[in-house]
Amino acid sequence: MRIHSAVLIIGLCLGKAYAQNYAESKVSAYALPEVLKAANGKIIRNKASWEKTRRPEILRLFENNVYGEMPKDYEDIKFVVTNDEPMAMEGKAHLKEVAITVSRLGKTVAIHLTLFIPNNRKGPSPAFLLINNRPPGNTQASRETKSEFWPAEMLISSGYAIAAFHVADAAPDKKEEYMNRALQLYPEQLTKDNGMKAVGTWAWAASRVMDYFKTDKDIDFKKVAVVGHSRGGKAALWAGAQDQRFAMVIANCSGNTGAALSRRKFGETVKVINTNFPHWFATSYKQYNDNENTLPVDQHMLISLIAPRPVYTTNATKDLWADPKGSYLSLINAEPVYALYGKHSALTAEPPAINDAIINSAIGYHNREGIHDMTAFDWANFIRFANFHKHE
Ligand code: GTR
Question: Among 147, 157, 284, 372, which one carries the catalytic annotation?
Answer without folding.
Answer: 372
